[in-house]
Structure prediction request, 222 residues.
Amino acid sequence: MRIEAVLFDLDETLHARTRSLAAFARRIYVDALPGIAGQTSEEDFVEAVLRGDERGNRPPEGLLTWLANRFDLGLTAADLVEVYLAWEHPVLFDDAEETLRRLRPRRLGIVTNGSERSQAAKIANSGLDRWTDAVAISGALDMRKPEPGIFEDICRRLEVAPASCFMVGDAPEHDVAGGRAAGMRTIWVERGPWPSGLARDYDASVARLSEVVPIVERWDRE
Ligand SMILES: [Mg+2]
Prediction:
């Protein structure tokens, strides 16, 4: 059956979120030199930011308020939030753009949970906007993965049926179970462990994004 559209999660699927956060931390550190050097090393500072992030499970405002209080950075927590939300140097996984390019001419979309401002900035500043026909951001829609509504919304805008879409993502519940419940085929991107209590109900799993292309092409022929 013809696959009409391939939808991707953003953070830790296309966007190397942890690497981006480390780059953000390095920038903040360098901008706070020389005063920060007497408080902590760059390496320890980056490590503290990554640890405080709890793999994205902590709201950025909490992490950044803690940082502003813990270190004398010459920035308020509000300043840090501003820099973070508009972060100009998001890092994509090495094969992200190449994968999207090879999936053309199928329709391409992003389905992401997060604030409209931060997710839209990442998509624009990384150049992903050039590759996507539609984007669904939970903060803009008042629906979030794994709710079927957010997947149905992007299908409507792409004018495709869920059954002719693949949803590709790293989050077992949000992307894989959510995409499946909305009637899509799903590919799990293995960036971490699969939770023990959840059935492995996906069409394929991949270690690298580029592996998505031959899987989609195979479905086209079936
Ligand atoms: Mg993700």
